[in-house]
Write a structure and sequence with these properties.
Blueprint lengths: L2 H27 L11 H12 L7 H21 L5 H44 L1
Helix pairs in contact: 1-3, 2-4, 3-4
């Protein structure tokens, strides 16, 4: 068995694990923010805070890995029409993973942090207005 085949198998297995965890955990992380009919004011504040902090709780490395493997499959399947060699596979994986992870991390640090800060400031102001 070629080392490339083993490496591709391990990467696909790890990506499958990341995908399964993503499918299992992520839909549930937002359920605490769904309003219920009998919610009291305290519950609404708690749910708003859950909604505001949902993005930072996303597990970026899993999403970056899944997107990287899909990108590598598209690059080598559509452009090159071949299975990558091990050094190509690792190089592409590292480069694409770093790009995806950096983009998500940058988005979270620049946009999401401000949104959370402003949202929580508004929640504090609402509490003082009571």
């Amino acid at each position: 068995m070629r080392i490339e085949t083993i490496m591709i198998g391990l990467i696909l297995l790890f990506t499958y694990f990341a995908y399964c965890k993503e499918v299992k955990e992520q839909p549930n992380c937002y359920k605490q923010g769904i309003p219920k009919k009998g919610d009291k004011e305290k519950d609404v504040y708690k749910r708003l805070n859950v909604c505001l902090t949902a993005e930072p709780r996303v597990i970026r490395w899993r999403r970056s890995l899944i997107a990287s493997v899909i990108a590598i499959a598209l690059i080598f399947g559509i452009v090159h029409f071949r299975i990558p060699e091990m050094n190509e596979l690792l190089l592409y994986l590292v480069i694409i993973y770093v790009v995806y992870y950096s983009m998500w991390d940058n988005f979270s640090d620049t946009v999401t942090v401000e949104v959370i800060k402003n949202g929580q400031a508004n929640l504090r102001k609402l509490r003082r207005l009571r």
